[in-house]
């Protein structure tokens, strides 16, 4: 079995937590790795990085290649058409054959529509996030995107949803044929994400031993609801001024060494709030942190907070749970399938600053509760792994392939 992954939107090896690079990159790399171990050959097609103009191939894992192909167009819709042609020429030139394509995100899906027609093989689509959800939860309306997603929904041979909720959304808002949607849950790499000793982790990372650490990990994007976290901390420190001395809020994500980062609208909003609430002494932007280092950060934290308005799955929550952290999250998207409120994490009402603030306060002051949540969280996380996901995906490929 040989599969062509289409990853137009972002190279899976891009530094995570910056601009476009997040959960989808982690998903693609881990799925491909596990499929490779199961004997499925995977070629991942992505765009060359800015300075490279010739195709280049990297052997990522056993049976898995990453193929960078150059695309010049600035406009993504034109580039997608061009990308499909470039992938197709490459396949012809190298005389490659695939049993099917698996495309990730809607732009890749648009390329896959063209490749399906050209090579007369099926394609499977994972959207990762849907335009309709961005419209409903973040207020960002992109009609062309939703139209493209509807087209992909109709023409693709199968759709992968990460949760039952995503399946429901595909049926309700995209009128997708229910028989075509397969719920296959992503996983977490348990070899990497496992609990570490808190004190030792803080020493390794040079983090204070005498403070309560509240951690956020993710792309710095309006959908992540970071302004709510800052406002919640502001509320806490107004009520309990001593908190400013004893709390340290760490924000992981974003390219803090680039001036573009500090000119980003969302970043400016967060920075302004930190100033207004006089929190600059206790809130720190750490920038993007390598995936391999994250387990130490999760293990150092007293509370990991995810204040998002929407998450299609919420890998950060699962990673933190696998590391035994006490997680405080809004019950959005896939998160509601991970957290059982009060048992293996705490849920707050999305967008409700007072609720977030109060629950953060309670958790910070209750080490026993944090410990029991963390223990149960590790237990929950054990059931979700990339090995299981790849196994299910392989079975589906075998069913769909011609
Ligand atoms: N991530 C990382 N370093 C960072 C920020 C994020 O490795 O500095 C990873 C994080 O571990 C997670 C992914 O990026 O695996 C974010 O995935 P999630 O599903 O939480 O959010 P998305 O990006 O899909 O919105």
Automatic annotation (TrEMBL):
Ranges where the Glycosyl transferase family domain occurs: 198-377
InterPro entries, per database record: Glyco_trans_1, Glyco_trans_4-like_N, Glycosyltransferase_grp1
Residue ranges constituting the Glycosyltransferase subfamily 4-like N-terminal domain according to the UniProt record: 22-190
Gene Ontology molecular-function annotations: glycosyltransferase activity
Stored SUPFAM superfamilies: UDP-Glycosyltransferase/glycogen phosphorylase
Name of the protein this chain belongs to: Glycosyl transferase family 1
Species of the source: Candidatus Gottesmanbacteria bacterium RIFCSPHIGHO2_01_FULL_40_15
